[in-house]
Amino acid sequence: MSGALLSHKDFSVVVQRRAPSPKPWGWEIYRKGRKSPIDFSKVFFQTESEATGAGERALASLLSEYSD
Asked: What was the pLDDT predicted at 67?
């Protein structure tokens, strides 16, 4: 798959409460046109902002695998 075909606008990071406290937050990465996530957090986070940061780093890593 060519890196030129992939862009950040085709992907989104969704952060939701997925577990009981004290670490309820998890992230999922979705690709445009798909209903199921292409990746998701294997661990949970204490705050929404921690989960958001981790999800954005995971997306950056995913996109870097396809760069030219």
From this structure: 61
Is residue 43 within 8 Å of residue 56, measured between CB atoms?
Answer: no
Residue appearing with tokens 């957090």: 41
Backbone angles phi, psi at 50, to 5 degrees: -65, -45
Please, what's the b/e burial string for 4-29 (b: 16 or more CB within 10 A of its CB; e: otherwise)? eebeeeebebebeebeeeeebbbbbb
Tens-digit pLDDT profile for residues 8-50? 789 999 999 999 999 999 999 999 999 999 999 999 999 999 9
Distance, in Å, from the CA atom of 18 to the CA atom of 34, rounded to the nearest integer, reads 20
